[in-house]
Write a structure and sequence with these properties.
19 strands, six-stranded mixed sheet, binds iron/sulfur cluster
Length: 669
C-alpha cells in the first residue's frame, strides 16, 4: 500500500489527446520525496536542454506535495514545474488554495502534460473519469470567470479549477495560473499552459489518502496546531510587524504601510519616498482597505487567513495576499484604491503581480527618457493610472509595444535597444525582482539572491532574523526558545551579531557562518516544496511550527518512509543538486549568479567572491557553480555526472569545466 501519496500520475499527451493513468515507482519517492523533488527528476529524465519552453516536448507538471491531502495543517501546495520562457531555466511556481488536496482525493499525485493541443481544451478530472473537453467557448475569458463557467457547466460548485486568462493564452512571459484562492505566478508558467492549449484543469475527488501510522501522525498535527495557537498569542517582539507572526506576511490584515511605502522603491524600482506615509494617507488607505476587503480567507486546512477577498466597486470579487497589495500602487505612484482595482483586471488576465507592474513602470521610464516615443504609445492616456490600464491591456493582448513588453523587462530591453538595457536594472537571471534598493551589503541575502534557483527572494529566506537585535536582552530572549535551529551554533551567531562595530555586516556573520545560514534556510524551503507545505508555516517565518526536528517524524508516520534528520537533509541535498544540474545543463553558470548591481549601494567585490567560493564548496559545486563528480556520486546522482561528462560540462578526469567549451547560453549570445 502507498501512504500519503496515491502512487499514480496522470500522463496527458495533448498532441494525441491521450490520457494514461501511470503507476509510479515508490523508490523515486524515497530518493526525491515527491512534489518538487520528483518533478525535478521527471524534468531531468524527459526534457533535455535542447528543448525550448514552447517546444511540444517541454513538460508542464502539476504536482501535489507528498503530504498534501493528509491532515497536516497548511499542507496544500501545488508545485508547477516546466521550462520558463522568461529565464529558459527550470521554473517552479507554487500555489496554495485547495487544488492539490483535491487532486490527491481524485487519486493522483501529478498531472504531466506533454505535446500541444490543436484546439483550446480543459482537463476535467472527476475521480477515475478524466477527459479533455473543448474550451473554445472559454477563449479570451478571464481566469476567474473561466473557473466559474466551468463550475456551472459541470454543475459542481465543489470542483477546484486552475486556469489561465488572456495573458496565458497569448504566451505572455509573466502569465500566471490562477486558482481562486491562490496563484502560481512567477516565471511565466501560464504562458506554457497557454502554449499547450490548456485553458484550465478542473478537479473533483472524493477518495481517501492513506497515512502509515495515523495515531502518531495526528498527534504530530495536534502539536503543530497547539504551537500555531501559542505563536499567534505570542508574536515575536523586536522585528517588523508583518514578520512577527506565522503565515505569509499578513498584508491583508495590516493597515500601517509605512515600512513598505518608505523602504521599497516606487516606479521602476528607483524612487524612494522617505516621507510618504502620513496621517492623511494612513486614513485614506485604511478606508480603502476596510471598504474593499470583504473577508479574510485561508487555504485548505489552515487557520492563518493570509488572503482576503477584495471587491472593488463595480468589479468582480477576487483574492489577494501579501505584497501584491502594493505592487501596482507603488509602480504607478498612485493610491491603494487604484492598486486594488487594477489587480482585479490583472488577476482576470492572469499575470504575475510582481513582474507586471515593474514591466509597465519600466516602459514609462523609457518613454520619459525618450527611448520609447509617442509612436510606441498611440492613444495612451496622459494620467499614470490610465497609462497602467492601457499598458496592461496591450501587454496581455500582445498589441503594438505590448508585444515587446510581454516578454518581460530583460528581453524587451534587448529588443528595444537604444540604451534600454540600462533601465532593466532590477532582474536576476532575466527575471524581475522585488523593488528593493538598500545601503549596506547583506552577505546572507547576497548569497540567497545570487544562488537561489527559484529566482525569487521570498522563497529562500526565513529562519534567521533579517537584522541583528540591538540589545543583548533581546537576543537572549529570542534564542531562549529557539528550538527550531538544526545546530546550537546558530544561537551564538545571533547572540554575537551587532548592528554596528566589529561584529556587524558585511563582515559578520563571517563568510562560513553566512553559508551555513543560507544552507539551512534553503534546506527548509526545499523540504516544504517536496512535501507541499506552505512556507508560511515552515520555512518563511521565524520560529515556525514545522522544522527540521519534526519533519522526519511527519514523513515517517505519514508516508511510511523511514526518515531521520540526516536522511532528510541528504535527500533534500540530492534533489536540490538535481535542480541545479538541470539549470547547469541549460547553460546557467557562475556569471549568472549576481544580484542587481544597484541592489546595495555599498558593495564588496572581494567579499562577494569569497562568499560565492565558500558557498559553492559547501554545496559540492566547483568554482563555476557546477556540481562536482565527487558530490554527485555521494548523492547517488552518477547519472548526472555521466551526462555532464558526455556533454563536456565536466571532464572525465576532473571537476573543472573544459576551458575551450562555452556554455550553451554563451554560445547563443
Ligand atoms: S499560512 Fe496562509 S498562505 Fe499558508 S496555507 Fe495558511 S492561509 Fe495559506
Amino acid at each position: 500500500m502507498r501512504y500519503a501519496e496515491t502512487g499514480f500520475n496522470l500522463e496527458i499527451d495533448l498532441s494525441r489527446g491521450s490520457i494514461e493513468r501511470v503507476e509510479t515507482d515508490p523508490r523515486e519517492t524515497e530518493l526525491y520525496l515527491g512534489g518538487l523533488g520528483t518533478n525535478a527528476k521527471i524534468l531531468w529524465d524527459r526534457v533535455p536542454p535542447e528543448i525550448k519552453p514552447f517546444d511540444p516536448e517541454n513538460l508542464l507538471i502539476f504536482s501535489a506535495g507528498l503530504l498534501c491531502g493528509t491532515p497536516a495543517t497548511g499542507c496544500n501546495r501545488t508545485i508547477v514545474t516546466t521550462i520558463s520562457p522568461q529565464t529558459e531555466l527550470m521554473a517552479f511556481s507554487m500555489m496554495g488554495g485547495f487544488w492539490a488536496p483535491e487532486l490527491k482525493y481524485a487519486g493522483y499525485d501529478k498531472v504531466i502534460f506533454r505535446g500541444k493541443s490543436p484546439k483550446l481544451v480543459y482537463l476535467y478530472i472527476n475521480n477515475d473519469k478524466v477527459e479533455l473537453r473543448d474550451a473554445s467557448h472559454l477563449q479570451g475569458k478571464g481566469s476567474l470567470e473561466t473557473a466559474e463557467l466551468i463550475r456551472q457547466e459541470l454543475q459542481d460548485p465543489k470542483v477546484q479549477v486552475a486556469s489561465i486568462g488572456l495573458a496565458g493564452e497569448n504566451r505572455v512571459y509573466f502569465a500566471s495560473i490562477e486558482q481562486g484562492r491562490s496563484s502560481a505566478s512567477r516565471l511565466g508558467i501560464g504562458a506554457v499552459m497557454g502554449d499547450k492549449g490548456i485553458k484550465a484543469i478542473a478537479v473533483r475527488g472524493t477518495k481517501d489518502i492513506n497515512v502509515a501510522r495515523p495515531a502518531e501522525f495526528i498527534e504530530l498535527c495536534n502539536e503543530v496546531r497547539e504551537y500555531i495557537k501559542f505563536r499567534n498569542e505570542n508574536p515575536i517582539p523586536g522585528v517588523m510587524t508583518i514578520l512577527q507572526g506565522l503565515g505569509s506576511p499578513q498584508e491583508m490584515k495590516v493597515h500601517d504601510e509605512k515600512w513598505h511605502t518608505e523602504n521599497f522603491m516606487w516606479g521602476n524600482a528607483r524612487v524612494r519616498r522617505r516621507d510618504f506615509w502620513n496621517e492623511e494617507v494612513a486614513q485614506k488607505w485604511s478606508e480603502t482597505l476596510d471598504t474593499m476587503r470583504t473577508r479574510l480567507i485561508s487555504c485548505f486546512n489552515c487557520p492563518m487567513e493570509c488572503g482576503a477577498t477584495i471587491s472593488p466597486p463595480g468589479l468582480l470579487t477576487y483574492m489577494m495576499k501579501c505584497f501584491s497589495k502594493l505592487t501596482y500602487t507603488m509602480a504607478a505612484f498612485s493610491d491603494l484604491d487604484f492598486g486594488l482595482g487594477i489587480a482585479q483586471s490583472a488577476t482576470e488576465y492572469g499575470v504575475d503581480g510582481f513582474s507586471t507592474p515593474q514591466v509597465m513602470a519600466f516602459a514609462l521610464e523609457l518613454y520619459e527618457n525618450g527611448i520609447l516615443t509617442d509612436d510606441d504609445f498611440p492613444g495612451m492616456p496622459s494620467d499614470n493610472e490610465g497609462r497602467f490600464y492601457w499598458l496592461l491591456d496591450r501587454i496581455v493582448r500582445r498589441e503594438g509595444i505590448g508585444d515587446v513588453l510581454a516578454n518581460g523587462t530583460y528581453w524587451a530591453a534587448k529588443e528595444i535597444g537604444k540604451g534600454a538595457e540600462e533601465y532593466a536594472h532590477n532582474t536576476i537571471k532575466k527575471h524581475e525582482q522585488l523593488p528593493l534598493k538598500l545601503s549596506m551589503l547583506n552577505p546572507i541575502y547576497f548569497l540567497m539572491y545570487a544562488t537561489g534557483e527559484k529566482i525569487n527572494i521570498t522563497q529562500i529566506e526565513g529562519q534567521f532574523p533579517q537584522a541583528p537585535f540591538p540589545t543583548m536582552e533581546e537576543r537572549e530572549a529570542f534564542v531562549k526558545d529557539w528550538f527550531q535551529v538544526p545546530d546550537e551554533k546558530f544561537k551564538q551567531i545571533l547572540l554575537d551579531w551587532e548592528p554596528r562595530g566589529e561584529k556587524s555586516m558585511p563582515y559578520y556573520p563571517t563568510v562560513q557562518m553566512c553559508c551555513d545560514i543560507v544552507d539551512w534556510q534553503e534546506t527548509m524551503h526545499y523540504i516544504d516544496d517536496a512535501l507541499g507545505m506552505c512556507a508560511g508555516l515552515s520555512s518563511f517565518p521565524l520560529k515556525p511550527p514545522y522544522h527540521i526536528h519534526n519533519y522526519p517524524k511527519f514523513i515517517s508516520s505519514g508516508a511510511g518512509i523511514d526518515m531521520d534528520e540526516d536522511k532528510l537533509t541528504h535527500a533534500i541535498k540530492r534533489y536540490r543538486t538535481l535542480v541545479r544540474a538541470i539549470n547547469i545543463r541549460r547553460g546557467m553558470r557562475r556569471e549568472d549568479e549576481k544580484p542587481p548591481e544597484d541592489h546595495w549601494k555599498k558593495r564588496f567585490p572581494e567579499l562577494e567572491k569569497e562568499l560565492l567560493d565558500t558557498y559553492y564548496t559547501l554545496k559540492g559545486w566547483n568554482n563555476d557553480g557546477i556540481p562536482t563528480q565527487g558530490s554527485l556520486h555521494e548523492l547517488g546522482l552518477d547519472y548526472v555526472s555521466e551526462d555532464f561528462v558526455k556533454r563536456g560540462i565536466l571532464t572525465g578526469s576532473d571537476d573543472e569545466p573544459p576551458k575551450e567549451k562555452a556554455s550553451p547560453e554563451k554560445k547563443k549570445q
